Amino acid sequence: MSSSIGTLFRVTTFGESHGRAIGCIVDGCPARIPLSPDDIQTQLNRRRPGASALSTPRQETDAVTILSGVERGLTLGTPIGLSIPNADTRPADYAEMEAIPRPSHADFTYAEKYGMRARSGGGRASARETAARVAAGAIAEKMLAAFHPVEIVAWVEAAGDILAQRPDLGAVTRATVDASPARCPDPAAAPRIVAAIESARDRGDSIGGVIACVCRGVPAGWGEPVFDKLTAQLARAMMSIPATRGFEVGAGFAAARMRGSEHNDPFTARPGGGIRPASNHCGGIQGGISNGEEIFFRVAFKPVSTISLPQSTAAFDGTPVTFEAKGRHDPCVLPRAVPVVEAMAALVLGDAFLHQQIQLMPRPAAARPENSP
Ligand SMILES: Cc1cc2nc3c(=O)[nH]c(=O)nc-3n(C[C@H](O)[C@H](O)[C@H](O)COP(=O)(O)O)c2cc1C
């Protein structure tokens, strides 16, 4: 079972939803990067359950403890260990699920694969695990910020059948995204999304949607072809988030319906020298390598599978049952998944940044090709 992501900036998460704690080890972060618990807590608080009426009422403070790798506010270059306690666990809520796998959750497949599974709360399949990703992502962002002005901002672009206006990709900020509990920066769509989530919750049902994300300030050259293209790494990272169902970069699936003359991004002179693409249908990545433009991608999320409406299904032993889920669940993952998407982008970019340092090392003069600067 792979619980790790990245090679040079490598993160391993641990912990089950209803165990004592969850956390991660971040290995490969360079020394002397400023890092405080507050840097991590700020992002954790954005993902925290119970913080909004639109999320699960499970109450977790998600107070992070830095166990290792940091002294006097600076990283030591050694593995950084982080721990986040599970305080508000209610295993009794999951008693019924020992016999009945939740339709479209991971109960059945975990049991088939391992022959046993965590006794309550979805174990590793629970979105609780994503708190560790968010904590690690905050460290990746601190590392990136020490070398490049990288800004990663995600927001809710669609929920159910409501589609929001796309914000200015150069200007959208986390503050404008967080202005609405829907985490949608379109002031017309945000209240409609809030109402749709509330309506699903009140009916005991759930809805899905789409999160969009922009990464600004990424220089040209990040990404490792051919198997570790930036597009491939982002797709893998995003599709590892629970409940994801699709990934699109740039024009995405719409590109399949465009002509080359519409989709191409012709070059133009860059003020100060060199060239840059005049448009950005490719979403800032060409040949798996960042081209210096804004990286733009979208992630589709399914409706949450644990719903309290009655469903005709079968218990593990084959008995037909009517299942009405108990416990505390999100009627829509989107607002809480926004910082998770940002964190996964930060982990991919952090690893890509470290890899690119190899290409930037000074070469011996004899090894320089004739046309190199
Ligand atoms: C932020 C977030 C919160 C989630 N909350 C819930 C939840 O409350 N109840 C639930 O059944 N699934 C929730 N999920 C989704 C499940 O974790 C996911 O559907 C499950 O692990 C099965 O994996 P799959 O949907 O990717 O196949 C959440 C996902 C995210 C990203």
Low-pLDDT runs: none
| Bound ligand species | flavin mononucleotide
Tally of domains:
1
Q: Pairing-aware structural class of the strands and helices?
A: alpha+beta
- Name of the CATH architecture: 4-Layer Sandwich
CATH superfamily, by name, is Chorismate synthase AroC
Q: What share of the residues lie within helices?
A: 25-40%
CATH class: Alpha Beta
> Could you tell me the radius of gyration in angstroms?
22 Å
3D structure, described in words:
The chain has about 375 residues and is α+β, with helices and mostly antiparallel strands. It has a single domain, classed as Chorismate synthase AroC (Chorismate synthase, AroC fold, 4-Layer Sandwich), CATH 3.60.150. Helices cover about 25% and strands about 20% of the residues. It has 8 helices and 18 strands. The strands form 6 sheets. The chain has a 5-stranded antiparallel beta sheet with strand order 1-2-3-7-4. Strands 9-8-10-16-11 form a 5-stranded antiparallel beta sheet. Strand 5 and strand 6 form a beta hairpin. Helix 1 crosses helix 8 and helix 6 packs antiparallel against helix 8. It is globular. The mean pLDDT is about 95. It binds flavin mononucleotide.
Brief synopsis:
The chain is of the alpha+beta class. The protein contains eight helices and 18 strands. The mean pLDDT is 94.
Notable characteristics:
alpha+beta, single chain, Chorismate synthase, AroC fold, binds flavin mononucleotide, globular, 26% helix, 5-stranded antiparallel beta sheet, 373 residues
